[in-house]
Amino acid sequence: MDWHFYLYGGATSIVLAVLSFFFLKRTGLAIFLLLAGSLLIRLFAISLDFHLHLWDEQFHAMVAKNLLDNPLKPFLYKHNFVPRELAFWDLGHIWLHKQPLFMWQMAVSMKYFGVNAFAIRLPSAILGTIGVFFIYRTGRLWLGKNIGFLSGLLLATSFFTVEMMTGIIHTDHNDSIFQFYILASIWAWSELEHSQNKKRGFWIVLVGILAGCAVLNKWLTGLLVYLGWGLTILFNREKRVQPKYYLELAISVVICLITFLPWQLYIWSEFPKVARFEFEYNSRHLFENIEGHGGDVWYHFNAAKKIYGIHPLILFPLIMGFWFFKEVPRTFKIATISYFVSIYLLFTVAKTKMIAFTFSISTITYIFLAFWIFHLFRRLKSRLKLFDSGKYLLAGKWLFVMLILSLAHFNLKAPQIIENHTSEKAEGGTFQNLREYNARYFQRISEINKKETYVLFNTSKYDEIPAMFFGNFASAYNFKPSKELVQKVKSAGFNVAILDSGDLPFWIQSDSEILKISGYRWIP
């Protein structure tokens, strides 16, 4: 299948969405087309690579595949022939390095769409598309439908957001889906703030569920919505003296706890040693440079250019300047600025730094940017007074629409996405090319191993995970086995297979019970 059709279809749908919104005034149709375009672009992007990416994606995928058998048993190595219970996240048997919700979603996707990379990425694409609607609603509720639509357009065509869904950026689907739940909880709170008394109970509960899902995806920064909610009560003279607003907040927090606490209690009861190890290891991210992921105090400010494509000296003054506009509701200003400042402050202070740590509030940033785009064009229009009537009014609309479509084009960077996923493969012999070849190779030989009866040895480093994922091996290791280990595997009722590198020990070559497999390409 030529997945480029989805890119062209998505781009066409987005162009039609913009035209429908600004010329036909068909808001419902425009939002439908925007969502369709967003989904098609994401389907295109997640289909570019057959293989799983290093680092994180392949480990998330492998655990998700094992969760198909038992959603309460998060195994990286389901059959553990080399004991390493408390090993780091790339080696361990029981895998508690991340909260499980996004991997449960991957498992459900694989149940219906098969064990493949596309199914792994599909939940990110679907939720990312739903997120476009949520950001539209959030922007519309607080700032009007024009800014809501522009916010949705910026998110739908966000290069960094789309690339996160492909798995090529570290933390991949974990942060991609976390972004969704943070946005979803803020959207539900926004609906609460604009709802009548009869409907408030529904939104209070929904905020709690969505915030709980955010925590169950990436831990306690998922509680972010409550920071803004609480501050807007304290800074409102009428609300801060009325107990009912604190009660609503408390009820939502309780719902949130009910959502994410059971898993925490379960893993501390079922896997206490591993749970303690991971809790202590993850806590060290605040005080230590873990795994070489460090940076100076300006790290996340500079990273903003990669996420949004805007120089930080322009981006951050625009965001802070948002506070001074009287037309922006004070409640929204307090909440959103507090979200932005708290996340950047937290991860600036933290010693471990990775580019996507602040990605969770990117949707808020897109609302800020949409506000500024609309505000600046409106100011330009009023200053020039060229587009107020007659043919100039139509010319002004066309100018604005062309600017918006150009912005969407440069925001998406479709040629860069294609190059990121195809240039190395076309060269042959490169890392990505070898990963792609071996993934397809493992899938071909999986036909001999449908029931996971073989344990594989002698892969390249980190290719043992694709071997288990695509090749259906019960377990896989990147070294040649000892006689004792071969006997251990056989005694457990499994067969032994080894990738033939041409330098196998004589005792392995002469053992007819060991399956030797050729045709594999080792990655340096």
UniProtKB/TrEMBL annotation:
The chain crosses the membrane at residues 6-24, 31-52, 112-135, 147-170, 204-229, 249-268, 307-325, 331-347, 354-374, 394-412. One of its GO terms (cellular component) is plasma membrane. Keywords: Cell membrane, Glycosyltransferase, Membrane, Transferase, Transmembrane, Transmembrane helix. It is found in: Cell membrane. Residues 99-263 form the Glycosyltransferase RgtA/B/C/D-like domain. One of its GO terms (biological process) is lipopolysaccharide biosynthetic process. InterPro entries: LipidA_mod_glycosyltrf_83, RgtA/B/C-like. Its main location: membrane. One of its GO terms (molecular function) is pentosyltransferase activity. It is a multi-pass membrane protein. It holds the Pfam family PMT_2. PANTHER family: MANNOSYLTRANSFERASE YKCB-RELATED (PTHR33908), MEMBRANE PROTEIN (PTHR33908:SF11). This is Glycosyltransferase RgtA/B/C/D-like domain-containing protein. It comes from Luteibaculum oceani. The lineage of its organism: Bacteria, Pseudomonadati, Bacteroidota, Flavobacteriia, Flavobacteriales.
